[in-house]
């Protein structure tokens, strides 16, 4: 499934500055793998050593937090809109 | 009511250190607005009024990830100025509610752009209607660090009876370490200043800035810092749990990061009086991802204290 993925500023160094990219995957897990194939190293920033999404990163599918769906198993359909968002805001 | 915060000795987590190494944390959560930011917010506003830049009819505006916003909203209420804040929409729910309850108007910036996005959006709003606003400009206003030079630092020096050897603080605007550091070095040039930052651009440490990947605050001068310690989000979170479980104190994640760094420094010393800042308490973060899966993380073996 071809989907659009919005990427936060700290990850744009992997996507050559792009804030939105295309990717493929039947579910979020496959999507992350696909992103890492296109943008090597991005998965390691998003996921921990066990392969789970890091706690301070939120992933939204069409506006819904995947933690309230099926996490990495959340299935995707053509044209879905994914956002990877830091769970908090740094700064002051 | 702002300032004059207590200094807490961290005893249990500090077990295992050399007996003459002591760690103290300054509990800035005791400020009326709930964070260390009450100090620079007050100073910047006071100076603005003195300089005539903030006067009746003006609105106070700034970008913030929350604590400064709360402080400005509070002070604005008391002095009778309207307050507008530009805040990334991924700040904690508690923050949003507190700011709203204090009567500030909020413009949310893109969460994917982080606090730099808020800085830029605030700049745009200001450009469109400059005369309406007074901007404390926390990332660039020397009165931010001046507040710490005048209040935070003398308090620390007095509270440690001049024995402080190391000062450890997280960097967000850099105001705390710059202002506190300047006073401390004047008193004793051998005191070491240690800055703490997230170890990566993508992090979960609300309030702190990864300097290499973001707009560097104009008031932060890294050459004045003796050492900079990167702390992972996971280690900072782990320390928050340890502080609540072992010391009985509930703090935010930036405090966890500072404590982790302080412990790291302490382990290399044979003696020393270390002081760190706990910028706020933990009640503003209870609904956030900080506490997601924490019990599972605390279980023996699951928790990584990479010290």
Helix content of chain A: 10-25%
Order of helices and strands of chain B: EEHEHEHEHEHEHEEHHEH
Number of strands of chain A: 5
Q: In terms of quaternary structure, what is this?
A: heterodimer
Provide the domain count of chain B. 2
Order of helices and strands of chain A: EEHHEEE
Overall spatial form of chain A: globular
The counted number of beta strands of chain B is: 10
Second-tier CATH architecture of chain A: Roll
CATH class of the largest domain in chain B: Alpha Beta
Content-based structural category of chain A: alpha+beta
- Low-confidence spans of chain A: none
Structural class of chain B: alpha/beta
Describe the structure.
The complex is a heterodimer of chains A (92) and B (307). Chain A has 92 residues and is an alpha+beta fold. Chain A has one domain (2-86): Ubiquitin-like (UB roll), CATH 3.10.20. Chain A is 17% helix and 25% strand. Chain A is built from 2 helices and 5 strands; from the N terminus they run ββααβββ. Chain A has a 5-stranded mixed sheet, with helices on one face. The mean pLDDT of chain A is 93. Chain B is an alpha/beta fold. Chain B has 2 domains: 7-30 and 148-298, Rossmann fold (3-Layer(aba) Sandwich); 38-134, Rossmann fold, CATH 3.40.50.1100. Helix content of chain B is 37%, strand content 18%. Chain B has 9 helices and 10 strands. Chain B has helices spanning 38-50, 67-79, 93-101, 114-128, 142-159, 175-187, 233-247, 253-266, 294-298, and strands at residues 7-9, 20-27, 59-63, 83-88, 105-109, 133-134, 166-170, 192-198, 227-231, 271-278. Chain B has a 6-stranded mixed sheet with strand order 1-2-10-7-8-9. In chain B, strand 7, helix 6 (175-187) and strand 8 (192-198) form a beta-alpha-beta unit.
């Amino acid at each position: 499934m071809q989907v659009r993925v919005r990427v936060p500023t700290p990850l744009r160094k992997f996507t050559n500055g792009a804030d939105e990219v295309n990717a493929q995957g039947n579910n979020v897990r496959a999507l992350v793998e696909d992103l890492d194939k296109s943008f090597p190293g991005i998965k390691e920033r998003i996921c921990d050593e066990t392969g789970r999404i890091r706690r301070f990163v939120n992933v939204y599918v069409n506006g819904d937090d995947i933690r309230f769906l099926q996490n990495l198993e959340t299935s995707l359909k053509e044209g879905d809109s994914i956002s990877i968002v830091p769970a908090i805001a740094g700064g002051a | 009511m702002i300032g004059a915060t207590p200094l807490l000795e961290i005893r249990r987590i500090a077990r295992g250190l050399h007996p003459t190494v002591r760690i103290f944390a300054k509990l800035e959560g005791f400020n009326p607005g709930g964070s260390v930011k009450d100090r620079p917010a007050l100073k910047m506003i006071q100076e603005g009024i003195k300089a005539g830049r903030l006067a009746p009819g003006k609105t106070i505006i700034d970008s913030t990830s929350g604590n400064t916003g709360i402080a400005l909203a509070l002070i604005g209420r008391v002095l009778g100025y309207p307050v507008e804040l530009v805040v990334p929409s991924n700040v904690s729910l508690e923050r949003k509610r507190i700011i709203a309850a204090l009567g500030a108007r909020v413009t949310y910036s893109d969460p994917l752009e982080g606090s730099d996005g808020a800085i830029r959006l605030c700049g745009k709003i200001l450009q469109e209607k400059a005369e309406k606003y007074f901007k404390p400009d926390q990332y660039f206003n020397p009165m931010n660090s001046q507040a710490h030079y005048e209040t935070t630092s003398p308090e620390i020096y007095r509270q440690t009876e001049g024995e402080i050897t190391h000062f450890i603080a997280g960097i967000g605007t850099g105001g705390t370490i710059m202002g506190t550091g300047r006073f401390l070095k004047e008193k004793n040039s051998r005191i070491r200043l240690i800055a703490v930052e997230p170890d990566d651009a993508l992090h979960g440490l609300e309030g702190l800035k990864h300097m290499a990947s973001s707009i560097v605050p104009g008031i932060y001068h890294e050459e004045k810092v003796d050492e900079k310690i990167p702390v992972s989000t996971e280690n900072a979170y782990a320390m928050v749990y340890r502080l609540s479980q072992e010391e009985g104190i509930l703090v935010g994640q930036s405090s966890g990061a500072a404590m982790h760094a302080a412990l790291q420094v302490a382990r290399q010393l044979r003696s020393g009086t270390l002081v760190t800042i706990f910028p706020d308490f933990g009640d503003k973060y209870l609904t956030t991802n900080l506490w997601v899966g924490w019990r599972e993380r605390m279980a023996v073996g699951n928790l990584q204290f990479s010290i």
